[in-house]
Amino acid sequence: MLDRIRASIPALPPAEQRVAKLVLADPRAFASLPVVDLAERSHVSKPTVVRFCRSVGYDGLTDFKRKLAGVVNEGVPFVHRSVDEDDKSSDIVVKVIDNAVSAFLKYRNDAATGAFERAIAALTEAGRHGRRIEFYGVGNSGIVAQDAQHKFFRLGVRATAVSDGHVQVMSATMLAPGDCAVIISNSGHSRDLLDAAEIARKKGATLIVITASGSPLAQVALTGNHILLAVDHPEDYDRYSPMVSRLLHLMVIDILTTAVALRLPGELRPMLQEIKKNLRAKRYTRADAD
Question: Of 57, 102, 195, 286, which one has the greatest count of Cβ atoms within 10 A?
Answer without folding.
Answer: 102
